[in-house]
Amino acid sequence: MYSYGLGTGDISLYYNPRNEPHATFQEKAMTLNGKAPTPNDPKSTWRRWTIAQLNTPVAVTLADVTGNGRMDIIICYQYGKTVWTADPKCGYVVWLENPGIDAMAEGKPWTERYIGSWPVMHRLRAGYFTNS
Fold first, then answer.
1. Please, where are the H alpha helices in 1-132?
2. Where are the domains of the chain?
């Protein structure tokens, strides 16, 4: 589960290892949270990672850009306060490369990769395109 917000600029990942079928992820969750999960408390295994802080993130979509089986985040930001006060030099679109749960547990950040810019960008959709 991902979250983001115009007010904070925080791009966060909320990871729930209880949804994972493998016991190794349960064990990893105990290590990451510093305590064993309590069976009756669903919040005890959730872990929040702040992936990035961007100025006024607006639209977000997910796609496996690298083809490694992990969902990357594509997001636009630096929109401006409103469509009428938007900065014509802004509207950045980037993708944040997912390093994987093991790398995140070791503190490795998500790599921000610039795609382009378009003023007042506020809708995104991911797709795969070819030359033919």
1. 23-33, 101-105
2. 2-117
